[in-house]
User: Which sequence fits this backbone?
Protein backbone atom coordinates (compact mmCIF):
# COMPACT_ATOMS: atom_id res chain seq x y z
CA UNK A 1 0.00 0.00 0.00
CA UNK A 2 1.07 3.40 -0.63
CA UNK A 3 1.94 5.50 2.17
CA UNK A 4 0.59 8.91 2.28
CA UNK A 5 3.07 11.59 1.62
CA UNK A 6 2.95 14.76 3.47
CA UNK A 7 2.36 18.03 1.74
CA UNK A 8 5.86 19.27 2.28
CA UNK A 9 7.40 16.25 0.61
CA UNK A 10 6.70 17.17 -3.05
CA UNK A 11 8.64 20.36 -2.70
CA UNK A 12 11.56 18.46 -1.44
CA UNK A 13 11.18 15.99 -4.23
CA UNK A 14 11.22 18.72 -6.86
CA UNK A 15 14.36 20.10 -5.40
CA UNK A 16 15.82 16.70 -5.40
CA UNK A 17 14.94 16.16 -9.06
CA UNK A 18 16.52 19.43 -10.20
CA UNK A 19 19.76 18.60 -8.52
CA UNK A 20 22.06 16.74 -10.89
CA UNK A 21 23.17 13.34 -10.08
CA UNK A 22 26.52 13.07 -8.49
CA UNK A 23 27.52 10.48 -11.08
CA UNK A 24 26.66 12.81 -13.97
CA UNK A 25 28.55 15.64 -12.34
CA UNK A 26 31.53 13.46 -11.97
CA UNK A 27 31.34 12.44 -15.64
CA UNK A 28 31.09 16.04 -16.81
CA UNK A 29 34.01 17.11 -14.76
CA UNK A 30 36.06 14.22 -16.00
CA UNK A 31 35.17 15.16 -19.58
CA UNK A 32 36.29 18.73 -19.01
CA UNK A 33 39.54 17.73 -17.45
CA UNK A 34 40.21 14.98 -20.03
CA UNK A 35 38.67 15.79 -23.42
CA UNK A 36 38.23 12.88 -25.91
CA UNK A 37 41.22 11.88 -28.02
CA UNK A 38 39.34 12.45 -31.26
CA UNK A 39 38.95 16.13 -30.45
CA UNK A 40 42.69 16.62 -29.92
CA UNK A 41 43.94 14.41 -32.72
CA UNK A 42 41.75 14.40 -35.81
CA UNK A 43 41.63 11.38 -38.05
CA UNK A 44 44.78 11.11 -40.18
CA UNK A 45 42.81 10.46 -43.39
CA UNK A 46 40.28 13.26 -42.95
CA UNK A 47 40.72 16.02 -45.58
CA UNK A 48 38.88 19.36 -45.42
CA UNK A 49 38.14 21.06 -48.80
CA UNK A 50 36.67 24.16 -47.15
CA UNK A 51 37.36 25.93 -43.89
CA UNK A 52 35.51 24.51 -40.96
CA UNK A 53 34.32 27.87 -39.71
CA UNK A 54 33.88 30.12 -42.77
CA UNK A 55 33.49 33.81 -42.21
CA UNK A 56 30.36 35.67 -43.31
CA UNK A 57 32.32 37.46 -46.06
CA UNK A 58 33.47 34.22 -47.55
CA UNK A 59 29.92 32.88 -47.52
CA UNK A 60 28.68 35.87 -49.47
CA UNK A 61 31.45 35.51 -52.08
CA UNK A 62 30.75 31.82 -52.52
CA UNK A 63 27.05 32.58 -52.91
CA UNK A 64 27.81 35.15 -55.63
CA UNK A 65 30.14 32.83 -57.55
CA UNK A 66 27.83 29.89 -57.30
CA UNK A 67 28.88 26.32 -56.78
CA UNK A 68 32.54 25.53 -57.53
CA UNK A 69 33.31 24.36 -61.06
CA UNK A 70 34.96 20.97 -61.11
CA UNK A 71 38.37 20.89 -62.84
CA UNK A 72 38.39 19.99 -66.51
CA UNK A 73 39.95 16.71 -67.50
CA UNK A 74 43.29 16.94 -69.35
CA UNK A 75 42.93 17.58 -73.04
CA UNK A 76 43.53 14.56 -75.25
CA UNK A 77 44.91 14.68 -78.76
CA UNK A 78 42.42 13.57 -81.31
CA UNK A 79 43.55 10.53 -83.29
CA UNK A 80 43.80 11.35 -86.96
CA UNK A 81 42.64 8.52 -89.10
CA UNK A 82 43.96 8.43 -92.64
CA UNK A 83 41.35 7.02 -94.91
CA UNK A 84 42.23 5.37 -97.14
CA UNK A 85 45.38 4.26 -95.36
CA UNK A 86 48.60 3.30 -97.13
CA UNK A 87 48.25 -0.02 -98.86
CA UNK A 88 50.80 -2.73 -98.26
CA UNK A 89 52.51 -3.99 -101.40
CA UNK A 90 51.03 -7.18 -102.63
CA UNK A 91 53.37 -10.15 -103.06
CA UNK A 92 54.64 -10.46 -106.59
CA UNK A 93 53.10 -13.33 -108.52
CA UNK A 94 55.30 -16.28 -109.27
CA UNK A 95 54.65 -16.02 -113.00
CA UNK A 96 55.61 -13.06 -115.17
CA UNK A 97 52.98 -10.88 -116.77
CA UNK A 98 52.18 -11.45 -120.40
CA UNK A 99 53.61 -8.94 -122.90
CA UNK A 100 50.11 -8.22 -124.23
CA UNK A 101 48.86 -7.14 -120.82
CA UNK A 102 51.93 -5.11 -119.82
CA UNK A 103 53.84 -4.02 -122.93
CA UNK A 104 56.24 -1.75 -121.03
CA UNK A 105 56.77 -3.95 -117.98
CA UNK A 106 60.29 -5.28 -117.43
CA UNK A 107 60.76 -8.96 -117.89
CA UNK A 108 60.79 -10.75 -114.55
CA UNK A 109 63.87 -12.82 -113.92
CA UNK A 110 63.07 -16.33 -112.93
CA UNK A 111 64.68 -17.97 -109.96
CA UNK A 112 66.76 -20.33 -112.04
CA UNK A 113 68.18 -17.60 -114.28
CA UNK A 114 69.82 -15.63 -111.46
CA UNK A 115 72.84 -17.94 -111.49
CA UNK A 116 73.52 -17.35 -115.18
CA UNK A 117 75.95 -14.39 -114.73
CA UNK A 118 77.96 -16.31 -112.12
CA UNK A 119 78.13 -19.38 -114.36
CA UNK A 120 79.17 -17.33 -117.38
CA UNK A 121 81.85 -15.58 -115.32
CA UNK A 122 83.20 -18.90 -114.10
CA UNK A 123 83.20 -20.17 -117.65
CA UNK A 124 85.06 -17.07 -118.80
CA UNK A 125 87.69 -17.63 -116.10
CA UNK A 126 88.09 -21.23 -117.21
CA UNK A 127 88.52 -20.13 -120.83
CA UNK A 128 91.10 -17.55 -119.76
CA UNK A 129 93.06 -20.22 -117.88
CA UNK A 130 92.79 -22.48 -120.92
CA UNK A 131 94.17 -19.73 -123.17
CA UNK A 132 97.19 -19.33 -120.89
CA UNK A 133 97.75 -23.09 -120.79
CA UNK A 134 97.61 -23.30 -124.60
CA UNK A 135 100.10 -20.45 -124.88
CA UNK A 136 102.44 -22.28 -122.48
CA UNK A 137 102.18 -25.46 -124.55
CA UNK A 138 103.09 -23.62 -127.77
CA UNK A 139 106.02 -21.80 -126.16
CA UNK A 140 104.47 -18.34 -126.31
CA UNK A 141 104.46 -18.07 -122.52
CA UNK A 142 107.03 -19.94 -120.38
CA UNK A 143 105.37 -22.33 -117.92
CA UNK A 144 105.88 -21.92 -114.16
CA UNK A 145 108.84 -23.79 -112.62
CA UNK A 146 108.13 -27.40 -111.60
CA UNK A 147 107.08 -27.86 -108.00
CA UNK A 148 105.84 -24.28 -107.62
CA UNK A 149 102.93 -23.76 -105.26
CA UNK A 150 99.75 -21.93 -106.19
CA UNK A 151 101.03 -18.49 -105.18
CA UNK A 152 104.29 -18.80 -107.09
CA UNK A 153 102.55 -20.24 -110.15
CA UNK A 154 99.97 -17.43 -110.19
CA UNK A 155 102.65 -14.78 -109.73
CA UNK A 156 104.70 -16.35 -112.53
CA UNK A 157 101.74 -16.27 -114.93
CA UNK A 158 100.98 -12.63 -114.10
CA UNK A 159 104.59 -11.61 -114.73
CA UNK A 160 104.79 -13.49 -118.02
CA UNK A 161 101.51 -12.01 -119.22
CA UNK A 162 102.80 -8.53 -118.38
CA UNK A 163 105.93 -9.26 -120.43
CA UNK A 164 103.81 -10.52 -123.33
CA UNK A 165 101.68 -7.38 -123.35
CA UNK A 166 104.75 -5.17 -123.06
CA UNK A 167 106.37 -6.85 -126.06
CA UNK A 168 103.12 -6.50 -128.02
CA UNK A 169 102.89 -2.76 -127.34
CA UNK A 170 106.56 -2.35 -128.16
CA UNK A 171 106.01 -4.14 -131.47
CA UNK A 172 103.31 -1.63 -132.42
CA UNK A 173 105.73 1.28 -132.05
CA UNK A 174 108.56 -0.55 -133.82
CA UNK A 175 106.35 -1.22 -136.85
CA UNK A 176 106.28 2.45 -137.69
CA UNK A 177 109.73 2.21 -139.18
CA UNK A 178 108.64 -0.58 -141.53
CA UNK A 179 105.56 1.35 -142.65
CA UNK A 180 107.66 4.47 -143.21
CA UNK A 181 110.02 2.42 -145.40
CA UNK A 182 107.11 1.05 -147.48
CA UNK A 183 105.70 4.50 -148.09
CA UNK A 184 109.13 5.90 -148.96
CA UNK A 185 109.61 3.12 -151.54
CA UNK A 186 106.26 3.81 -153.21
CA UNK A 187 106.89 7.55 -153.20
CA UNK A 188 110.28 7.05 -154.82
CA UNK A 189 108.67 5.11 -157.71
CA UNK A 190 109.56 1.63 -156.56
CA UNK A 191 107.43 -1.50 -156.69
CA UNK A 192 103.71 -0.92 -156.14
CA UNK A 193 101.95 -1.65 -152.90
CA UNK A 194 101.09 -5.31 -152.40
CA UNK A 195 97.99 -6.75 -150.76
CA UNK A 196 99.98 -7.99 -147.76
CA UNK A 197 101.53 -4.55 -147.24
CA UNK A 198 98.15 -2.85 -147.56
CA UNK A 199 96.58 -5.11 -144.93
CA UNK A 200 99.65 -4.66 -142.74
CA UNK A 201 99.27 -0.87 -142.81
CA UNK A 202 95.55 -1.10 -142.05
CA UNK A 203 96.17 -3.44 -139.10
CA UNK A 204 98.82 -1.08 -137.76
CA UNK A 205 96.41 1.84 -137.97
CA UNK A 206 93.79 -0.05 -135.95
CA UNK A 207 96.38 -1.09 -133.35
CA UNK A 208 97.56 2.48 -132.85
CA UNK A 209 93.98 3.55 -132.10
CA UNK A 210 93.65 0.76 -129.51
CA UNK A 211 97.02 0.97 -127.78
CA UNK A 212 96.29 3.92 -125.47
CA UNK A 213 93.13 2.46 -123.86
CA UNK A 214 94.87 -0.90 -123.66
CA UNK A 215 97.85 0.58 -121.82
CA UNK A 216 95.55 2.20 -119.26
CA UNK A 217 93.81 -1.11 -118.61
CA UNK A 218 97.11 -3.01 -118.47
CA UNK A 219 98.56 -0.63 -115.89
CA UNK A 220 95.48 -0.57 -113.66
CA UNK A 221 93.81 -3.96 -114.10
CA UNK A 222 96.15 -6.32 -115.87
CA UNK A 223 94.36 -9.43 -114.62
CA UNK A 224 91.10 -8.55 -116.45
CA UNK A 225 92.69 -8.48 -119.91
CA UNK A 226 92.03 -12.21 -120.51
CA UNK A 227 88.37 -11.51 -119.70
CA UNK A 228 88.34 -8.55 -122.10
CA UNK A 229 89.46 -10.95 -124.83
CA UNK A 230 86.23 -12.86 -124.19
CA UNK A 231 83.70 -10.06 -123.63
CA UNK A 232 85.20 -7.15 -125.63
CA UNK A 233 87.84 -8.47 -128.05
CA UNK A 234 87.63 -5.35 -130.23
CA UNK A 235 89.55 -3.45 -127.51
CA UNK A 236 92.72 -5.55 -127.85
CA UNK A 237 95.51 -4.75 -130.32
CA UNK A 238 96.39 -7.56 -132.70
CA UNK A 239 99.85 -7.95 -131.13
CA UNK A 240 98.40 -8.63 -127.64
CA UNK A 241 96.10 -11.54 -128.49
CA UNK A 242 97.01 -15.15 -127.75
CA UNK A 243 96.48 -17.73 -130.56
CA UNK A 244 93.58 -19.48 -128.82
CA UNK A 245 91.97 -16.11 -128.14
CA UNK A 246 92.25 -15.18 -131.81
CA UNK A 247 90.64 -18.46 -132.88
CA UNK A 248 87.74 -17.92 -130.49
CA UNK A 249 87.27 -14.32 -131.66
CA UNK A 250 87.08 -15.43 -135.29
CA UNK A 251 84.66 -18.24 -134.43
CA UNK A 252 82.33 -15.86 -132.56
CA UNK A 253 82.47 -13.36 -135.41
CA UNK A 254 81.52 -16.04 -137.94
CA UNK A 255 78.70 -17.27 -135.69
CA UNK A 256 77.36 -13.74 -135.35
CA UNK A 257 77.42 -13.27 -139.12
CA UNK A 258 75.62 -16.55 -139.75
CA UNK A 259 72.94 -15.69 -137.20
CA UNK A 260 72.41 -12.33 -138.88
CA UNK A 261 72.13 -14.02 -142.27
CA UNK A 262 69.41 -16.33 -140.96
CA UNK A 263 67.49 -13.97 -138.67
CA UNK A 264 67.48 -10.88 -140.92
CA UNK A 265 65.80 -12.32 -143.99
CA UNK A 266 62.91 -9.85 -143.79
CA UNK A 267 65.28 -6.88 -143.57
CA UNK A 268 67.31 -8.06 -146.53
CA UNK A 269 64.12 -8.62 -148.55
CA UNK A 270 63.04 -5.05 -147.79
CA UNK A 271 66.37 -3.73 -149.05
CA UNK A 272 66.23 -5.82 -152.22
CA UNK A 273 62.77 -4.51 -153.05
CA UNK A 274 64.18 -0.98 -153.42
CA UNK A 275 66.09 -1.93 -156.56
CA UNK A 276 69.50 -0.25 -156.58
CA UNK A 277 70.90 -0.41 -153.06
CA UNK A 278 72.98 2.43 -151.66
CA UNK A 279 74.28 3.39 -148.24
CA UNK A 280 71.61 6.08 -148.01
CA UNK A 281 68.91 3.44 -148.53
CA UNK A 282 69.98 1.61 -145.38
CA UNK A 283 68.39 4.28 -143.22
CA UNK A 284 64.98 3.74 -144.85
CA UNK A 285 64.64 0.18 -143.57
CA UNK A 286 64.50 -0.24 -139.81
CA UNK A 287 67.32 -2.41 -138.47
CA UNK A 288 69.19 -2.54 -141.79
CA UNK A 289 72.47 -0.94 -140.56
CA UNK A 290 72.59 -3.30 -137.58
CA UNK A 291 71.94 -6.36 -139.75
CA UNK A 292 74.63 -5.39 -142.28
CA UNK A 293 77.18 -4.71 -139.52
CA UNK A 294 76.51 -8.13 -137.99
CA UNK A 295 76.79 -9.78 -141.38
CA UNK A 296 80.18 -8.17 -142.06
CA UNK A 297 81.53 -8.85 -138.56
CA UNK A 298 81.52 -5.19 -137.54
CA UNK A 299 80.60 -3.69 -134.20
CA UNK A 300 76.92 -2.82 -133.78
CA UNK A 301 77.38 -0.29 -130.96
CA UNK A 302 76.04 3.23 -131.31
CA UNK A 303 73.38 4.79 -133.50
CA UNK A 304 72.58 4.09 -137.15
CA UNK A 305 74.81 6.96 -138.29
CA UNK A 306 77.86 5.32 -136.70
CA UNK A 307 76.90 1.90 -138.06
CA UNK A 308 76.51 3.30 -141.58
CA UNK A 309 79.91 4.97 -141.22
CA UNK A 310 81.51 1.65 -140.27
CA UNK A 311 79.87 -0.03 -143.27
CA UNK A 312 81.20 2.69 -145.60
CA UNK A 313 84.75 2.37 -144.26
CA UNK A 314 84.63 -1.41 -144.50
CA UNK A 315 83.36 -1.36 -148.09
CA UNK A 316 86.14 1.07 -149.02
CA UNK A 317 88.65 -1.36 -147.52
CA UNK A 318 87.06 -4.24 -149.46
CA UNK A 319 87.19 -2.27 -152.73
CA UNK A 320 90.92 -1.63 -152.32
CA UNK A 321 91.52 -5.24 -151.27
CA UNK A 322 89.68 -6.50 -154.38
CA UNK A 323 91.86 -4.36 -156.62
CA UNK A 324 95.02 -5.72 -155.01
CA UNK A 325 93.76 -9.31 -155.21
CA UNK A 326 93.21 -8.90 -158.96
CA UNK A 327 96.60 -7.18 -159.31
CA UNK A 328 98.65 -9.77 -157.40
CA UNK A 329 96.77 -12.90 -158.43
CA UNK A 330 98.33 -14.70 -155.48
CA UNK A 331 97.13 -18.06 -154.29
CA UNK A 332 95.52 -17.93 -150.87
CA UNK A 333 95.61 -20.62 -148.21
CA UNK A 334 92.44 -22.21 -146.87
CA UNK A 335 92.38 -19.99 -143.77
CA UNK A 336 93.05 -16.90 -145.89
CA UNK A 337 90.19 -17.86 -148.22
CA UNK A 338 87.86 -18.25 -145.24
CA UNK A 339 88.82 -14.85 -143.84
CA UNK A 340 88.53 -13.16 -147.23
CA UNK A 341 85.03 -14.50 -147.83
CA UNK A 342 83.92 -13.65 -144.29
CA UNK A 343 85.03 -10.04 -144.75
CA UNK A 344 82.67 -9.85 -147.75
CA UNK A 345 79.75 -11.50 -146.00
CA UNK A 346 79.97 -14.61 -148.17
CA UNK A 347 79.25 -18.00 -146.63
CA UNK A 348 79.06 -21.46 -148.13
CA UNK A 349 76.67 -24.25 -147.17
CA UNK A 350 77.92 -26.74 -144.61
CA UNK A 351 78.40 -29.42 -147.29
CA UNK A 352 80.51 -27.16 -149.58
CA UNK A 353 83.33 -25.87 -147.42
CA UNK A 354 86.26 -27.26 -149.39
CA UNK A 355 88.98 -25.06 -150.84
CA UNK A 356 87.70 -25.41 -154.42
CA UNK A 357 84.25 -24.08 -153.49
CA UNK A 358 85.81 -21.17 -151.66
CA UNK A 359 88.03 -20.26 -154.61
CA UNK A 360 85.06 -20.43 -156.97
CA UNK A 361 82.99 -18.13 -154.78
CA UNK A 362 85.85 -15.62 -154.46
CA UNK A 363 86.39 -15.67 -158.22
CA UNK A 364 82.72 -14.92 -158.79
CA UNK A 365 83.02 -11.92 -156.50
CA UNK A 366 86.14 -10.56 -158.18
CA UNK A 367 84.65 -11.00 -161.65
CA UNK A 368 81.50 -9.13 -160.62
CA UNK A 369 83.36 -6.09 -159.26
CA UNK A 370 86.20 -5.94 -161.77
CA UNK A 371 84.64 -3.44 -164.17
CA UNK A 372 82.88 -1.20 -161.65
CA UNK A 373 83.67 2.49 -161.45
CA UNK A 374 84.71 4.28 -158.30
CA UNK A 375 81.32 6.02 -158.04
CA UNK A 376 79.25 2.85 -157.76
CA UNK A 377 81.94 0.63 -156.22
CA UNK A 378 80.37 0.64 -152.75
CA UNK A 379 76.76 0.19 -153.89
CA UNK A 380 77.81 -2.62 -156.25
CA UNK A 381 79.48 -4.55 -153.46
CA UNK A 382 76.55 -3.95 -151.12
CA UNK A 383 74.25 -5.30 -153.83
CA UNK A 384 76.42 -8.41 -154.22
CA UNK A 385 76.41 -9.02 -150.47
CA UNK A 386 72.61 -8.90 -150.31
CA UNK A 387 72.20 -11.06 -153.41
CA UNK A 388 73.73 -14.00 -151.53
CA UNK A 389 71.33 -13.69 -148.60
Assistant:
Amino acid sequence: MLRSIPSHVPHKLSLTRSRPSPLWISNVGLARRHPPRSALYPAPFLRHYSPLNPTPGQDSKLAEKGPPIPPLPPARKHKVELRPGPLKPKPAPSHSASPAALPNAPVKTQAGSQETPALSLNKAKEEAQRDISEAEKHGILPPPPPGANWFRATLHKAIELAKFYFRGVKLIFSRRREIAAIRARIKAGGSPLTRAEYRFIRTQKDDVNKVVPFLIIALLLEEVIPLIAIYAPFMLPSTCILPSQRARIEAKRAEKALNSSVNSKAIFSGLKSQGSISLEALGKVEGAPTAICSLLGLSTLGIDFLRTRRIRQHLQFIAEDDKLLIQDGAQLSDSELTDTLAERGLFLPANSTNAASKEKLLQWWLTSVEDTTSEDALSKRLDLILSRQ
Observations:
- The CA atoms of residues 158 and 328 lie 43 Å apart.
- Residues 242-389 form one domain.
- The longest helix spans residues 150-187.
- The two ends are 165 Å apart (CA to CA).
